Structures are given as structure tokens and as C-alpha cells.
User: Fold this.
Amino acid sequence: MNTDKVVTVPNVLTLIRFLIAVGFLVLALVGPAVYTELTWGMLLILFLSGSITDYLDGWIARTWPEQATALGARIDPVADKLLVFAYVVFLWSAGIADWWLEILLFVLIGLREVFVSVYRARYGHGSLPVGWKGKWKTGWQLLALTCYGLYPFAPELSEMWSPVVLLVATGFTWWSLADYFFGGTEDTLRA
Assistant:
């Protein structure tokens, strides 16, 4: 791992994810008045692009170790969480995620992410590689948010499947957290 290098492909991809997240927060402030079917499509593609950069930056850093940096290992999880948080805020501002159950599940996912981030920072586990539970957790979270993002195009389908996928994502999220308390921490610390 390169500790001195700052500008690498994975770090640039992580920066792009930060910028996408900031864009969603700005749109949440502007409000739904600017949302048309075209902008919804573009925003969904933007979210999916940000999600893909999450996979790509890790793959590049693992495949080409000279691209891995200490900075990247620290900021990548922050960018991941910020993208998810910003997209959830954006969905709330657009009135898509307004069910009490959905809000509760989003809060439970958010609390887990904050707890794990603080735990890792406090005990120096911020740069461990991602384990399988973390990959499944992230995959289900991104799938759930994608389902919500499909609402303007397929409202019935989105209303039917989004809460189900979000419930599964919440289960994976808390399953990985439970390992912090009840064993399996080596694998879970990577999640």
C-alpha cells in the first residue's frame, strides 16, 4: 500500500462519489420542483454510477497494489456512507420514502453505519478489507435504493418491492453489526 500517493485512480473514483453525494444533497435542498422524468432518469443513472465506482475503486486497488493508498482506505468507507445518506435524504425530499416503516429502516441502517465507523476509527480498524457480509450488506442497500429510484418510472413495482428489499438490506446490516458483539469480529470488522 502506498502511503504517500494521493492522486490514484481509486482515489479519483472516491472523489467522484463524494461529488455525486454533494449533488444529491443540493438537489434535496432545491426540492422536487426541478424533477422531471428526464431528470429522474439522469439522477438514477448518477446514483448507479456512484455505486459502480464503489466497486471499481476497490477492485482497482486490489488488482494493482500500487494504486492502493492509506488515504483511499480511510476515505472510501466515508464516501460510501455519504452517497447512501445523501441519496436517502434526496428520496425523502422528493416524497418517495415517506412511510414510517421505511424511515425507521433507513434510520436503523444509518445508526449501524455510524456505530461501525466510530468503532473502526476508535480502534484503528478503518482500513481492513471488506468481507462477504459487508459486500452483501452494501449490495442489498444499493439495490433497495435503486428500487426507490425507479418509482417515477414504475410506481407499482417500486411500491411493492422497495420495502421488501429494504427490509432484507436492514437484516444484513444488523446481522453484520451483531457479530461485533457476539463473535465473528474478524470477518465483520471487514464489513
